[in-house]
Every structure is written in structure tokens, then in C-alpha cells.
Design a protein that fits this description.
Elements: H1 2-14, E1 50-52, E2 55-57, E3 60-62, E4 65-68, E5 76-78, E6 83-91, E7 95-101, E8 107-116, E9 123-124, E10 129-133, E11 143-149, E12 155-156
């Protein structure tokens, strides 16, 4: 009994209960995604190149992709699809971020921005400038963290939906 009570008391200290399921929901790569051709997603940065992929990274899980920007930052970030701005401002880890809700229930998030060029509740068009790349939040260099979230709230690899 004493050993059991010691375990219960010390388990959170040493991380023994770390096997609890992750709050991050993910969709397997093999899942079929159906998006109408007129509702395809577009790259949020011109002349984009990949800095970091979606998926397992170190001890955690990277819920989006990181898109390389100029070292000086300042690249324009555009809306990947038309929608309504649901969230703008500072979020721990993400820094300055924007979240856009699209008509079919998908959402896109743009993070680590230097500045935000749109307002909460505003309707945006595909390709409209919504912000400027920066290095706010947990970012070591200017880049855009880009996420696509399904109608069910799952994070999905943006490469499955980008051209």
C-alpha cells in the first residue's frame, strides 16, 4: 500500500502519467480528403519553400508546415482561401496569428506574423494580403507557420490540399 501511494504521489513529478492521449487530433495521411475544385487551397506565400514539415518532430507533433521567408522578413502573407476572420492577435507559441474560417467548415491559421493587415470578423478573398511574415512567438527566424484544420477540428497536412 505504501509503495502504491508513493507512486501516485510521485508519478506526476516524474511524468509517469505522460501516456495520456495527446489533445492534438490528427488525420492519417491515407485519409481521403474531398474538397471541391473551386474550393482548393492556395499557397499563402509567393515563391515559397518548405522549412519544416507537418507531423512528428522531436518529442512533439508539428500541426502545420513552416514556409521559408526572406531572412529580413516582410513578405506578404495572403489568404489561402476566401473566408471570415475568426481570430487575430497574440497566441502563446504562435505569436501574432490569424485564423480564417471557410464556408465548408475548414479553417486556416497563419502564425509568427510581424503584423496583421485585417480585422476580426472581416471577410477575405483568396489571395488577399492578410499579414506580414515575422518571427513572433516561438520562432527563431522569420517564417510562416501555416495550418489547415478540418471541419471536425483535426489538423491535417497542408500538402494534401495545396497544389
Amino acid at each position: 500500500m505504501r509503495l502504491f501511494l508513493t507512486f501516485i504521489f510521485l508519478a506526476p513529478v516524474f511524468g509517469f502519467f505522460a501516456c495520456a492521449p495527446s489533445p492534438i487530433k490528427r488525420i492519417p495521411i491515407s485519409t481521403q480528403i474531398k474538397v471541391k475544385p473551386s474550393e482548393k487551397f492556395h499557397w499563402p506565400l509567393a515563391n515559397a519553400s518548405l522549412l519544416s514539415k507537418f507531423g512528428k518532430r522531436g518529442k512533439g507533433f508539428h500541426t502545420g508546415i513552416d514556409i521559408r521567408a526572406r531572412l529580413t522578413g516582410g513578405d506578404a502573407v495572403v489568404a489561402s482561401r476566401a473566408g471570415r476572420v475568426m481570430s487575430v492577435g497574440w497566441v502563446k507559441g504562435y505569436g501574432k496569428q490569424i485564423k480564417i474560417h471557410h464556408s465548408d467548415g475548414y479553417e486556416t491559421r497563419y502564425a509568427h506574423l510581424k503584423s496583421i493587415k485585417i480585422k476580426l470578423g472581416e471577410r477575405v478573398k483568396t489571395g488577399q494580403t492578410i499579414g506580414i511574415v515575422g518571427a513572433t512567438g516561438r520562432a527563431s527566424t522569420p517564417h510562416l507557420h501555416f495550418e489547415i484544420i478540418t471541419p471536425g477540428g483535426d489538423f491535417i497536412d497542408p500538402f494534401l490540399l495545396l497544389p
